[in-house]
Design goal:
single chain; mainly beta; six-stranded mixed beta sheet; 6 helices; 23 strands; globular
Length: 348
């Protein structure tokens, strides 16, 4: 369970908190319709067509020996990657990417106490505030995904958008309302859309955020962690884009509202608002956002120039646009924004 950067993706499932090495997370997305396979272990509920690759998907509840609950539109899939192989796990919510220092981790107390048919998946427990987070071994999880990943078969016509398999979805989808089934099916169709080869050098991951009803992408290499707005102290006589200072585990973090910098209409953040903590060239700041959606993987060919109608502030702060869902997201140049003269961000 080596993780030199000590960055983990924290997620919730069945009222418990878990974490996996963030460097092994390929992407996350909302749960789509899943096609079951015959002769697979019960915890492998089926496969999805992820842009031309058939990827097995596991139900974490079944893997842990629990009964599975009916799937919900709010559930999501975390895709892990190891040595070029991928597998997905269904969880209730992908919550944060955060550093967990080694001194805050303890080995799990279970080895030797419970007889398991496989090496334990939970290899440690971390104390984060009042929460206990169970650290999962990504290699052992991947081993349970089986050797099912393969290229998807090309549609015979080769024209138009591909459609998910006509095979019946997993039984846990059968008890859903028609509108829910249609949404799961739509998500599966979106995931099938094939882009250029993801394995090309230069492929990178971005955190997808919502700000003022628009989607933006932030390169994951500049993201230290995701968190929520807490312990906020407003600062008097500051520019409108400075929300205030936040106490983040004893460190003072300057919180920034990008809406003013990007010439967007002003707004207010709800209690559910998130914070993306970014750090580049010695500058650390928190970006206040309405919602943190996904971690998405992009190839260089996914990124297009900004449209001619882009706001001037966006032109100087963005690297381009990329497809996301039914629309597009603007890829922000965090280094350029943090270096800009209009920004006064404090460091830790």
């Amino acid at each position: 369970m080596e993780n030199e950067n000590n960055r983990f993706l924290v997620f919730s499932n069945s009222a418990s908190l878990f974490a996996v090495d963030a460097l092994r997370v390929r992407e996350t997305f909302s749960l789509p319709e899943i096609t079951p396979l015959e002769e697979t272990p019960p915890h492998v509920v089926g496969v999805i067509n992820l842009r031309g690759r058939i990827v097995p998907v596991m139900d974490l509840n079944l893997l842990f020996g629990r009964s599975s609950a009916k799937y919900s539109l709010s559930d999501c899939v975390i895709v892990l990657e190891l040595d070029g192989e991928r597998a997905g796990i269904i969880v209730n919510e992908a919550r944060d990417v955060m550093p967990i220092p080694a001194e805050d981790m303890d080995p799990t107390p279970l080895p030797g106490m419970v007889a398991l048919p496989h090496p334990p998946f939970v290899v440690g427990e971390a104390r984060v505030g009042e929460d206990i987070i169970m650290i999962l071994d990504h290699e052992r999880l991947m081993a349970q995904g089986g050797d099912f990943e393969r290229p998807a078969e090309e549609p015979e016509t080769g024209e138009g958008e591909s459609e998910p398999s006509s095979a019946p979805p997993h039984p846990l989808f059968s008890a859903l309302e028609p509108a829910e089934k249609a949404e799961f099916h739509r998500r599966a169709a979106l995931l099938m859309r094939k882009g250029d080869d993801e394995t090309l050098p230069g492929s990178w991951q971005v955190a997808v955020i919502d700000l003022g009803g628009e989607y933006f992408g932030i390169g994951l290499e500049s993201v230290r962690e995701f968190t929520r707005i807490t312990n906020l102290t407003p600062l008097p006589n500051c520019p409108e884009h400075i929300v205030g200072n936040m106490n983040l585990r004893g460190n003072i973090l300057t919180l920034i509202d990008f809406r003013a910098l990007l010439e967007m209409p002003p707004g207010r953040f709800e209690r559910s608002a998130g914070v993306v903590v970014v750090s580049m060239e010695g500058i650390t700041a928190g970006i206040a956002v309405d919602e943190i959606h996904d971690i998405a993987s992009l190839s260089p060919f996914d990124i297009s120039p900004l449209p001619a109608t882009a706001r001037h502030a966006v032109e100087s702060s963005a690297q381009g646009t990329a497809p996301y869902g039914d629309g597009a997201m603007t890829i922000l140049d965090i280094g350029e924004i943090l270096r800009s003269e209009g920004l006064n961000a404090g460091g830790e």
